[in-house]
Design goal:
Blueprint (H helix, E strand, L loop, with lengths): L6 H10 L9 E2 L2 E2 L2 E2 L11 E2 L2 H15 L14 H13 L12 H12 L9 E4 L4 H13 L4 H4 E4 L11
Parallel strand pairs: 5-6
Antiparallel strand pairs: 1-4, 2-3
Helix pairs in contact: 4-5
The structure holds pyridoxal-5'-phosphate.
Length: 169
């Protein structure tokens, strides 16, 4: 691609984007009389237009089957994760046997830290963004304490410099 810093070039790339039609599947909040430009990639995405109906369908199953909803109805909850395995493997470049969609972000953060945070007296500090999402901070703090270390000494929070909005690499 011969990159050009022009609006025409950006619009042309949008035109060629095979996923462009998916934009219409989402509810885009309005701002100043137009669609908001939404660039949040690390947290909550836009609400798909189909979400309210799908949730209503599951609330209906819950009222109809109660605990049996795990096994009964058109979409039993027990095996939901299996529906996501192949697409998730494709997204992260793993084999289907290596991935599973599960838990909340915070629970998964704990699992991640249990696997790779093996502190020693010489190497125990964790560097993280300053003022992170509270549950992220508590997860890191809990793991540090669990290994017998002091969060005050072990967690290094990094903030942008005065007058700047992003961290310098
Ligand atoms: C950066 C970040 N950390 C943690 C969370 C909390 O996620 P959960 O409630 O799934 O643990 C969120 C939720 O949006 C988040 O954006």
């Amino acid at each position: 691609v011969n990159y050009q810093n022009t609006l025409a070039f950006a619009l042309e790339l949008d035109r060629q984007d095979p996923l462009a039609a998916f934009r219409d599947e989402f509810i885009i909040p309005q701002h100043d009389g137009g669609d908001m430009i939404y660039l949040c990639g690390n947290s909550l995405g836009l609400q798909p237009k189909g979400t309210a109906d799908i949730i209503a369908q599951q609330l209906n199953n819950w009222s109809k089957y109660a605990v049996e909803g795990w096994f009964d109805g058109d979409t039993p909850w027990m095996f939901y994760h299996k529906q996501l395995t192949n697409s998730l493997a494709g997204i992260v470049g793993a084999l289907p046997a290596e991935v599973v969609a599960m838990n909340t972000l915070t629970v998964n953060l704990h699992f991640l830290l249990v696997s790779f945070y093996k502190p020693t007296n010489k190497r125990f500090k964790i560097i993280m963004e300053g003022g992170a999402f509270p549950s992220d901070q508590y997860a890191v703090e809990s793991q540090v304490r669990f290994h017998g270390y002091d969060p005050k000494e072990s967690i290094i929070e990094v903030f942008p410099r005065d007058g700047e909005d992003t961290l310098r690499t």
